Amino acid sequence: MLEKMEKEFDPEQVIKEFEDLTKNAKRVQTEILSKILKENCEAEYLKNCGLDGKTDPESYSSCVPLVTHKELEPLIQQIADGAPYPILTGKPITTITLSSGTTQGKRKFVPFNDELTETTMQIYRTSFAFRNREYPIGNGKALSFIYGSKQFKTKGGLLAGTATTNVYRSEQFKKTMKAMQTPCCSPDEVIFGPDFQQSLYCHLLCGLLFRDEIQVISSTFAHSIVLSFRTFELVWEQLCSDIKTGTLSPQITCPTIITAMAKILKPNPELANTIIEKCLGLTNWYGLIEELFPNVKYIYGIMTGSMEPYLKKLRHYAGGIPLLSADYGSSEGWIGANVNPTRTPEMATFAVLPNIGYFEFIPLKEANVASQDHAERGSELVLLEPRPVGLTDVEVGEEYEVVVTNFAGLYRYRLGDVVKVVGFHNSTPELQFVCRRNLMPTINIDKNTEKDLQLSVEAAAKLLASEKLEVVDFTSQVDLSSEPGHYVIFWEVSGEASEEVLQESCNCLDSAFVDAGYVSSRKVQAIGPLELKVLKRGTFQKILDHYVGLGSTLNQFKTPRCVGPANQIVLQILCNNVVKSYISSAFG
Ligand code: AMP
């Protein structure tokens, strides 16, 4: 496969391979499971499950338990500590991935190996092939807001870094990007710089220097693109001055970045003047990307799930440039490719690649009925073991939690994501990302999800729009410190909103939750009035800095949408930056 990638990239051949795989999804899944189990039959974990050499799906699901990261954590820790025997995989694991930990506040160790890099490249090539059919690009460059985090050695000497860092450092990544005609316009020293603010600045500078060649603007998650252009608004004059004089801003102090930038930054007053003219000609920065990069064909990054709230701002910067939503995956491995690039990000779906792992799906309808049943009988809530179904047995219109078995030692691993099956591509399902499962803790009988929170914030943000303001970012907390518990929503707003609008927004946030459990609990005051806390400008930047300080990269940063008590530091940052708070009067 690696050799194949190094050869000339043929999009039509990639599409053909994808069509063949997806036409035979069931058979491919059985083969992949068998391959994974054979390759790893020496792993203690599998031996203990009593598979005795069996590799069929039925034996697999009856012998191997469903697990979450919590259950595997001690085993992964043993690997990181250098245990000399095969624990989860046949071949020794030499690299560990650190998940961003931004959704739940805790970073996770996940085993990583070359197969995961290969599957990443397969996903990249597949979605690129489909994208290129609709939006062909010529030879050029990509302005990619990507960042390598520091890699470090675990106690046992294994290399550890974020998934994106592990991928960006690989030779395969560069070869694939080159083959796809979109090498990154920034030098490696910028991507792997030690300070993301300096790297971000230089990414912007490189983008401007190569502005005529830029075909694609991208990042892993859309948040990072929005953050970059918000930063541009603040530093554009400095960037233009650097270009005019050919000298780098004194804010850039990292020696490797300075040396690398010196090779490409030469005085170019003409370019600087063009950019100044473009910027001055814009109204409220609308269409900035289109103006700065005359040959850009599209903007690319994950725009679904917790990224949806940034779409409005991204569209504002993009002007007429199409937004194309990227694929679906995680530190634990990739899942599906966006093979319908013309759909709006809100409608994006992901076709599961049947050969990149073995996938099962826990039906959520069944799980909900089961727990409701228990609630109605007034019995203690015992979660029934949900029975997952195979990749090709999922039903259109239903929601599921994704269970992954990969080549790097995860077996029947619950990813914690909720997806909805919206159709099939040949015989493989097309998924829509719904939300993280159980993100918001329950106070009474409420079952609000991350998606419900997003919709409530969207509804209330419309009120702000009347004052030409926007929600820069938001999160929430379930406050159980007083009886009854209540929801707290934290908002950072782009300017000073009036008292009336904020009070109205607070009421709207409360009444916009549609979950029947929430509404009925609010009516009888079993859940207290929702509280809106308005934050100082720059609070979410502090939260981001906190995660980056922990070694997370900007690539994988996702604002945590609900902050639990385990995430004390973030709670502290939020609480210390509240400037105003409002209590809802929506339910009397
Ligand atoms: P991490 O392992 O930190 O990179 O985070 C992976 C998580 O990001 C996944 O489990 C999803 O919850 C989320 N995610 C990844 N890809 C997408 C996507 N295309 N749409 C929405 N959420 C995504």
UniProtKB/TrEMBL annotation:
**Protein name as it appears in the record:** Indole-3-acetic acid-amido synthetase GH3.5
Question: GO MF annotations for this entry?
Answer: acid-amino acid ligase activity
Q: Which organism is it from?
A: Artemisia annua
Per the record, GO CC terms? cytoplasm
Say which domain of life the source belongs to.
Answer: Eukaryota
**Record-stated family:** Belongs to the IAA-amido conjugating enzyme family.
Q: Which residues form a coiled coil?
A: none
Residues of the GH3 middle domain: 351-436
InterPro entries, sorted: GH3 (IPR004993), GH3_C (IPR055378), GH3_M (IPR055377)
Tell whether Ligase is among the UniProt keywords: yes
The GH3 C-terminal domain sits at: 451-563
Alphabetically sorted, this entry's keywords are: Ligase
